[in-house]
Every structure is written in structure tokens, then in C-alpha cells.
Amino acid sequence: MCPLLVDHSDTLGRLIKAKGGVAAGGTGIANWTQTYTFDRYGNKLTTVKSGITANSAAIPLDGLASQTYAAATNRITTSGTPIDRKAKENF
């Protein structure tokens, strides 16, 4: 991914938006953005990407697009996470 130009954090210091990159021949304006949302416990709920890299390729998603958590245990319930895969290996 291209260099980080701007980041925004919430009052708890969690990254909520990152912008960066400059398209080939660009003017210094960020050409990609990733935004993050969190639940009241600080768990990351969503990651949204937009934009392109300097060579006009789609930017990779930073993590999963969304995650869900069990209310009783606060554990990730999203299928396909590294934690989910490890748990299945141990059974």
C-alpha cells in the first residue's frame, strides 16, 4: 500500500480512518481510505476501503470487512478468522 498521509483516531486512541497514497502524477491528495468502526467494548466491527494504489490497483482490505462477537463472552463468532481456524484445528 502507499504511504500513510493522514490518520484519524477516536477519543480512546483507536484508528478510525487512514488516508494515503498519491496516484501516479498526482497532486498529493490521498487516493485511498480505510475506515474502521468499533462496538462499545472496543471490538473492531467493520473495515471499509476505497480508492486505488499509486499504480491504479485496488487497495487490499486491512483485515476482515466485518466481524461479529458473542454477547455473553465477547468472543469473535465470525467464521474464517485466524482464531476460528485455530479453534477448528484444535478439535
Explained architecture:
By secondary structure, this protein is mostly beta strands. The chain has one domain. Helix content is 10%, strand content 30%. The protein is built from one helix and four strands; from the N terminus they run ββββα. It has one helix at residues 82-90; strands at residues 4-9, 15-20, 32-38, 44-51. It has a four-stranded antiparallel sheet with strand order 1-2-3-4, with no helix packed on it. A hairpin with a 5-residue loop joins β1 and β2. The protein starts with a strand and ends with a helix.
The description of the largest β-sheet is:
4 strands, antiparallel
Bulk shape: elongated
Query: How do the SSEs run, as a string of H and E?
Result: EEEEH
N-C termini distance: 37 Å
Number of E-state strands: 4
Q: What would you call the structural class? A: mainly beta
Report Rg: 16 Å
- Beta-strand proportion: 25-35%
Any idea how many domains? 1
Number of helices: 1
Query: Strand order, biggest sheet?
Result: 1-2-3-4
Low-confidence stretches: none
Helical percentage:
under 10%
Give the rounded overall mean pLDDT: 77
